[in-house]
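User: Could you walk me through two proteins back to back? I'd like the raw sequence and the structure tokens for each, with a short line separating them so I can tell where one ends and the next begins.

Assistant: Of course. Protein one, sequence then structure:
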Amino acid sequence: MKQFIIVLTTLFSLFAVGCSAKRSETTQRLTLGRNFTSSVLNPMYFSAKAHDYFADYDLTVNVSAVDNSTDVESLGARKIDALYYGFIKQIVSAAGGADIKIYAGNLSGGMAVVAHKSVADDVRNPVNWKGRNIGVSLYGQSDMVAKNLVINQMHWDYEKDVSFKYFNDQEALISNVAKHSLDIGIIGPSYVENAKSQGLVYLYPAVNLYPEYVCCRQSANAASLAENREAFVSFLKAQIRGYKDYVTDEKSTTAIIAKEIQQDESFVTWNVYDPATNEGTTYNPDPNFNNSVPFYDIMLLSGYVTAENPVPIEHIYDISLYADALQSVIAQFPSDPFYKAMWDYFVSHNDAYPGFYEAYPAYL
């Protein structure tokens, strides 16, 4: 995702989220943690806020500013109820026993594969990655995507058949590919032009290696989720309607996002809608449990999760809130095929969850 810094003082006025005119009438409350320096967007949330969908479901969403050093800890300690960004940190914390649940989705895709010019033609085919040096971000989706390719698709030994190098700084990763200390790198969209300027060859979006690979998920404090289930379902109902806006009304949604993050509409188009620049980035509130399982297995295998008895992923995820929210929206708009198509997607992307077909037998 394109990196940017938003001046905090220009956004403090946005902390009161939901419908201000109806705010005093709502009986449900949630506190959402937002990192205003993060590049991660949530068009469904922004649209729901702009259209007062939260108030339609008797919900007020308050916002508390967080940062990368405290966000997951704040979630586990119940200083906030929910986050809409992040994935690996939440999973690792929950696997170790932290009071955190994943209950919905947000962002998928959004990385690019680049290579040193001397090997670019060869490694364009990932079959030829064997024996190569691969640069990825530590605790990043790039590591998950690359290891999924190596382990689950190629069936190679990730410690012997390739060499992974880990970076906290994507500029350093690019520099190492340029020096040919690395053959291949996986980077964010905003770094592609810089990589090209240093002589790297752009290969393709990382979604070519793993379509719809999960990135940021929506997470909650588990105790709050249990105690405020109706509020979380309302939160998702509003976002489901916001998702329809994001998919079907690009012009209005672009304007909404631009206003929310205080950026030009061209910036939003570049990051959210233009497939030529966003590297396969898509947004969807669906939990996508099925595509999360391989990444959890990789975290276990490669030492991200260090707990002696890690919590199974089906106990970290709770897909039932999204199912309840989507069923409710379908009932509210029974003639709208868009929401019924969302249910089909839910089935195809979550049916590996234990007991899925017993819980949702031929719902539609």
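----
Protein two, same layout:
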Amino acid sequence: MKMKMKRKINIIFPVLLCCMSFVWVSCNKEDIDDSKHVSITQPNITFLASVNGLGDNGYNDNAIGGVLSFIDKYDTRFHLLLPSTKAEAELLYRTWLNDNALKDSSLIILGSSDYEDIACKYPTSFMGKGTQVLLFECRNSNTPLNVHSLCINRYGCSYLAGAMSTDRDAKIWAATSEDSIIKTAIRGFMDGYNLHNKDQNTLSVKYLTNKDEGFAVPDSVYKEMKKEYDDDYFVSEDIIFPLLGFSGLGMIRYANENTFFAPWIIGMDINQKGLSINIPFSMVIKIGDMLREVLEDWRKGKKWEKVILKGMADNAIDIEFTPDFYENIILGDPADYEELYKIYHKEALEKDGYEKTK
């Protein structure tokens, strides 16, 4: 039975192309007949988006923005694949491997850590120059030949956010209990919060599910917020650290519908300063910028590390503030978060650097 593809979009940006070179990638001669090698000069990038991920006004949109800015700069053929299920994503990936095994300068970006098992399942012996697979948010260095990962270390910045949040009870809302990236962020926030919690405020963790579907259920988050806060949203002076992906919009929707909602919400992935008056600062993950840098290295033929790990020192992640937060708040007496940032930033930077070496 053929599986129906949701969408496949081909985009070509004709821009003056400078002379480009790519690294030779080793291959298994027994698997590939080099007489069928297809030499091409125009780079070919395919982005396999996370299931229902685009349109999140966050991490996924930022990532695709980084790719689009790169292909707008160079003469690059682009394919955007939008699977509706993980099984469909796997079929699309297998098709790409078959179609590009003999081609030069082809790259597929697997835009979700949930695709790690798919990336590890299939051999990737390419005959062409510069043909690679780039997986998001995976620290596994035992992936197949030609499979690399771009990973943003969240520990240090989460530690910083936790240290800055100790003036209130803190609640971590996580989309899933099984994602390794979320586990790192939770550990960082908890370490920073617990070490600097002089007022003995409380810290708790709430998981939506043990599956990755928790990243795409904003309506479920909205309902959970109603259960949590409908009776006392105007007196619960919490600060919420939401690791929810697209689902986080359900939390913001609830806050905006309740004028006297007292808890603060830490913005996530992008600077969410304009989405709610309850956001004092955001933990911004600059995946688009980092992806552009990696693509520039690929274009120049630079050899990638197996795991390309970026962190605070690389300007891949940081805290950004809501400028008019203090003027717009209705309830509560917030701390001076910018001053707390200055106090704890160096410490968090050192923690982040140590975590990258583990």
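The chain is about 35% helix and 20% strand.

Let me know if you want the two compared in more detail.
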